[in-house]
Amino acid sequence: MDTKELSAKVGACPAEAGQDVSKYGISARNITEKGYCRENLVPRHAPQDGPAGEADACERSAIGRALGILGDRWVLLILECAFLLRIRTFAGWRDELGISESVLAARLKELVRHGIFTPAAYRDGRTRYEYRLTGAGLRLWSFLVAIHGWERDWADRPGLLTLIHDTCGHEARPYLVCGACREPMSARDTSTERGPQVSIARIGLPRHHRRTLRGDDRTDYLGYCPHSMEILGDRWSTAVLAAALLGVKRFVDFQHELGIAPSVLATRLKLFVDLGVLAADSCRLYRLTDKGLAFFEVFAFLADWAQRELPAPEHTGLIITHGPCGARLHPVLLCRACDGELGRDEIHFEVSR
Ligand SMILES: [Zn+2]
Ligand SMILES: [Zn+2]
Asked: How do the pLDDT tens digits run along the chain, 353 residues long?
């Protein structure tokens, strides 16, 4: 088998320094989100394609908005291509992903609207446009690296990319630590404070794209992350897992927190049990397995990015704290080989074909 090594720097700018973590609130005021009925909390209709209205965006919390933007299979694949292969052009994504032009155009438009890409004209015989990651877009690198790490550790997929730490020259195998005390951090040693009106898992709503679960299983040589896609590529799945990571265990509590139809909830819970992310016991309690708990690393970076980059209502409803030191969530990735902090400009992926 021919093996061709590609190297792709992750992002182009120096690593961001001086991270400021000021608040980690999740708004409770999502209960009357467009498309959901306050009384029975069941979707009135399927979510529609196309950008959400600004009013809708303003009502949602930062994490809810982040899941709304990123909780989509195509969006994640577009971002992976941008980071790993430095794809910047419409034709580049279309050819790499086999994505339809209308779907790609809609996703790029949305990513531009959310300030993750910015279009830039360049001359190539005639004027063309490319899409460059903005500062906010580039700061998604740790979220994507965390997805890669979870997939590497838990999805048992041969051929996944290898992440190299340039500073020490070894495979990074990143692990999560608390930015304040530099000790390893997990879902087990973090606690969540909820405001009195917080409906925690409403953070996952609404999603603006239709998606078919487990559909379109395109095989890809880059080792994109299909297990993560099952979780992050679907709005209900992300909401269910977010609720589980924040302590929800009982079927009725998921229902209550999510405002999710029982049949939809049952489907997602079964999916997570099948994926080995949740385990159901005889009392219908759904507990996170080690694999599910490990997804906290991905969630932590999603929450962190959301709180930094996305505007949200003032009232803070949810604060995630690292128990041993008492500091608010500030996730940092360290290299397992040298224990140094990973910076975006100090790592690259090696792609085997
Ligand atoms: Zn700490
Ligand atoms: Zn290292």
From this structure: 333 333 334 433 222 233 222 222 222 222 222 222 222 222 223 333 333 333 343 345 677 778 778 878 889 889 988 988 889 999 999 998 888 999 999 999 999 999 999 999 887 778 888 999 999 999 999 999 998 888 888 876 666 778 999 999 999 999 999 999 999 999 889 887 765 544 544 544 444 444 433 334 443 434 455 677 777 767 677 778 888 888 889 999 888 877 788 998 998 899 899 989 999 988 889 999 999 999 899 989 988 998 888 876 655 456 789 999 999 989 999 999 999 999 999 998 886 54
Q: Which ligand is nearest to the CA of 191?
A: 1
Whether the full predicted model's pTM is greater than 0.85, yes or no, is: no
3-state DSSP assignment of residue 332 = strand
What is the distance, to the nearest Å, from the Cα of residue 35 to the centroid of all Cα atoms in its chain? 23
DSSP 44: S
- For residue 102, what are its two tokens? 């209308």
Which ligand is nearest to the Cα of residue 179, counting in written order? 1
Alpha helix segments (H runs only) across 40-140: 54-59, 62-70, 73-84, 90-97, 101-113, 135-138
Q: Where are the domains of the chain?
A: 6-351
Q: Which residues surround ligand 1, an ion (CB under 5 A)?
A: 178, 180-181, 322, 325, 327
